[in-house]
Amino acid sequence: MGSCKEQEKVEAAKCVWIHGPIIVGAGPSGIAVAACLKEQGIPSVVLERSDCIASLWQNKTYDRLKLHLPKHFCELPLMPFPLNFPKYPSKYQFISYMESYASHFNIVPRFNQTVESAEFDPSSKIWVVRTQDFEYISPWIVVATGENAEPVIPNIHGMDLFHGPIIHTSVYKSGFDYKNKKVLVIGCGNSGMEVSLDLCRHNAISHVVARNTVHVIPREMFGFSTFGIAMALNKWFPIKLVDKFLLLVSTFMLGNTNHYGIKRPKTGPIELKLATGKTPVLDVGQLAQIKSGNIKVMEGVKEITRNGAKFVDGQEKEFDAIILATGYKSNVPTWLKRCEFFDKDGMPKIAFPDGWKGEEGLYTVGFTRRGLNGTSSDAFNIAKDIAQKWNTINNNNSCNSHILLNNNN
Q1: Which of 182, 226, 325, 344 fits a 20 to 30 Å CA distance from 127?
Q2: Does the residue 206 lie in any domain?
């Protein structure tokens, strides 16, 4: 009998009522929402599967990474970057900013809490979020795991036969270990292009696969951010006209990329980004290396062989290593149960700017395909909406009917 009572106590301790929203993910999106909620006087609990904030930036990015856009486009709500930071902060400066941001707003996530499932209980009108340690309960859940939660690993015929290492860019750090080696980079988005450039600068022999069409545009035009110019022009002109201007200037500055094996999509860069999330490659020196032959552009891979790869154009080359610059995907479908708000790819079915709010206390942040700028917009909207409901609930309930976790538990 006594053992049964002890078991009941253990189960009760693991079932925790949260007086405020449960935020899943302690990346920039989750931290931004927590800060905006705190500004409204609303507590929250942030659950994070890793042991740090901004784990994608801290653990899964290469050393040379910098913000692709000027810092004023990448600020989180309520706190700008330090004035002494450069126009394009490095990954380490961004991590420092994130840590200062969390400290400033006294945001202490619950680390090493992997959400195994989350679902809405219609009978009690609450969300039940289960991790390996606890069952968290709240009227609200904020999905902040974002568009880039898990690396995409393609299944290319022959991968299991290759004699050398095959890694995803999520574990690539520097070209230092690839000096004088022949490396195949599969994927020509921003990560693939920048890794190829990094390899080149470490005297590796870099080949990049450009299977799909991609826009390459200068990071800056006339001394100003290309993105900033596009956003300014878009206030006055249609997107298609803005895209024509960007492509005209890009061709003037970079030449016709088709001549170097990089074919442009028919849809313009800004229109394509807003419609599909496919970001144009911002040139920071890659194209010059491609033109000089230091980075070789290859067509699609037909198969991987023991010593290298065969390509769709009939060529076959030997390589010492293969790096998969094949991007990331959402992991929402693996843990959010019985929810029709997300599609099969883990993205909100409702497009920006209305995709931040679902039904029954469900919110999303970091799924706008508009980077950190979109995150700020979502965070403000979520905090404002929850604040309205919070005030109503607090007028009807005592604030003492909750359990707050000690962060040392």
Answers
A1: 344
A2: yes
